[in-house]
Design goal:
alpha/beta
Length: 130
């Protein structure tokens, strides 16, 4: 199944505009509701996720708002793609929502691998044991 990325309108934005009646009130929930939400459907392989990373960077730069990825409709995610999603969370502040058990576990394992990798010796470095 091909990957499909759709920007969805945040319903809370419209409700708050109607409730506000022109009043300018800013709170944390207002800022969170201004996030750009992208719904991702299908399968995510490395090339797809790298494209998604570029899209998120561009959208965030244009709107100056955080990006949220709705991954509830993902049917497959490989470990390389999960690593890219973790990088997006870490570097761009992208929020991942709607993770199914399988997808959530793959992302969780990728995060743990990143954490563990910082403790491993770099290529070419030897470990001296006395």
């Amino acid at each position: 199944m091909p990957t499909r990325i759709t920007q969805i309108e945040n319903v809370r934005d419209n409700a708050k505009e109607l409730e506000g009646n022109g009043r300018d009130q800013s709170s944390n929930s207002d800022i969170e509701s201004q996030a750009t939400v992208l719904k991702v459907e299908g399968t995510l392989r490395l090339k797809d996720t790298e494209l998604l990373e570029k899209i998120c960077r561009d959208v965030s730069g244009q709107t100056e708002c955080p990006v949220t990825l709705d991954l509830a409709s993902i049917s497959f995610l490989d470990s390389e793609s999960a690593a890219v999603l973790c990088r997006m969370k870490r570097e761009q502040g992208v929020k991942l929502v709607g993770l199914h058990l399988f997808v959530g576990k793959v992302v969780e394992l990728a995060e743990e691998c990143e954490k563990a990798a910082q403790y491993l010796p770099k290529a070419g470095e030897g470990t001296l044991v006395s």
